[in-house]
């Protein structure tokens, strides 16, 4: 007869296995998209921005796997080429937000004082604006170049990274490993960046995975609204907008496939973030 004590470790192993499988699945899908991004920079079945590569508004076929758009352009080639644009923007945004937010939050969490109070007020102001509205306002003022879009989207999740890094450092700066580093003669900056920050990265990385799913959806939304990178470029959001009018005529493939790319990649990033978060909670409980 199975006792409660023996059943609990078994249930725990099953839970950890499920989390690990989700994390691995997310990593595999993101890896496939990364490969697609690299390959599409050098090769696509048809020129991604070329018109009249086949019949106009043709449904998916062996010659055109995702069909063609209203100009006869190959949707598969364009969606493939858009991978290195959307994935590149997402990686750049998450990387910049993670680094800037970690440094900013770690500094104010460690030193405190007036800089901490001022930073919290700035973060409150940044959070006061709806994210999409803020992006629309800034892009309409500064332009729609690739760099502008990246910098605008970086600003939106930055307060969350700052607050998370600040909370982690404030919680751990009086732990034994930090006090031991001070006793060995480490300078405050050394204690912060050689001990506290490396021991605070797991929740930040977990949030970065979840944030990446939001970023890919936001970049697509900006493209759909015509506020993404310059029109005419291969980008999933603008492809969805371009095929919107064809949906009522039964030409679903023009919007469906780029939308599916966004959905699958966003879900994969979320699985990675969720898996890292659950693993971190489990390690703390052990």
Structure, explained:
By secondary structure, the protein is mostly helical. The protein has eleven helices and no strands. The longest helix has 37 residues, at 4-40. 39% of the residues are buried. Mean pLDDT is 83; it is low at 1-16 and 280-286.
Q: In brief, what are we looking at here?
A:
The protein is mainly α and 286 residues long. The protein is built from 11 helices and no strands.
Radius of gyration from CA coordinates: 23 Å
Assembly state: single chain
Number of strands: 0
> What does the main sheet amount to?
none
Number of helices: 11
What is the fold's blueprint, element by element?
Layout: H1 4-40, H2 75-111, H3 113-127, H4 131-142, H5 146-155, H6 158-172, H7 176-183, H8 188-196, H9 201-224, H10 236-243, H11 253-285
Helix pairs in contact: 1-2, 1-11, 2-3, 2-5, 2-6, 2-9, 4-5, 7-8, 9-10, 9-11, 10-11
Keywords:
single chain, 286 residues, mainly alpha, 11 helices, 73% helix
């Amino acid at each position: 007869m199975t006792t409660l004590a023996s059943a609990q470790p078994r249930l725990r192993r099953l839970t950890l296995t499920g989390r690990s499988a989700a994390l691995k699945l997310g990593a595999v899908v993101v890896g496939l998209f990364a490969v697609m991004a690299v390959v599409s920079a050098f090769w696509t079945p048809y020129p991604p921005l070329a018109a009249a590569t086949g019949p106009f508004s043709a449904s998916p076929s062996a010659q055109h796997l995702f069909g063609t758009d209203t100009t006869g352009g190959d949707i598969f080639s364009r969606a493939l080429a858009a991978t290195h644009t959307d994935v590149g923007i997402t990686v750049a945004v998450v990387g910049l937000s993670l680094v800037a937010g970690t440094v900013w939050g770690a500094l104010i969490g460690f030193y405190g004082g007036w800089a901490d109070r001022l930073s919290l007020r700035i973060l409150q102001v940044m959070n006061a604006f709806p994210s999409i509205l803020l992006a629309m306002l800034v892009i309409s003022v500064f332009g729609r170049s690739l760099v502008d879009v990246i910098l605008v989207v970086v600003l939106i999740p930055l307060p969350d990274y700052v607050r998370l890094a600040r909370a982690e450092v404030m919680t751990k700066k009086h732990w034994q490993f930090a006090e031991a580093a001070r006793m060995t003669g480490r300078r405050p900056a050394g204690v912060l960046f050689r001990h506290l920050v490396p021991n605070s990265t797991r929740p930040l990385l977990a949030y970065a995975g979840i944030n990446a799913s939001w970023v890919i959806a936001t970049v697509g939304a900006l493209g759909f609204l015509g506020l993404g990178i310059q029109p005419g470029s291969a980008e999933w959001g603008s492809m969805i907008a371009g095929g919107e009018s064809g949906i009522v005529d039964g030409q679903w493939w023009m919007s469906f496939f780029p939308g599916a790319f966004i959905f699958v990649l966003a879900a994969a990033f979320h699985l990675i973030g969720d898996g890292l978060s659950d693993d971190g909670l489990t390690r703390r409980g052990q």
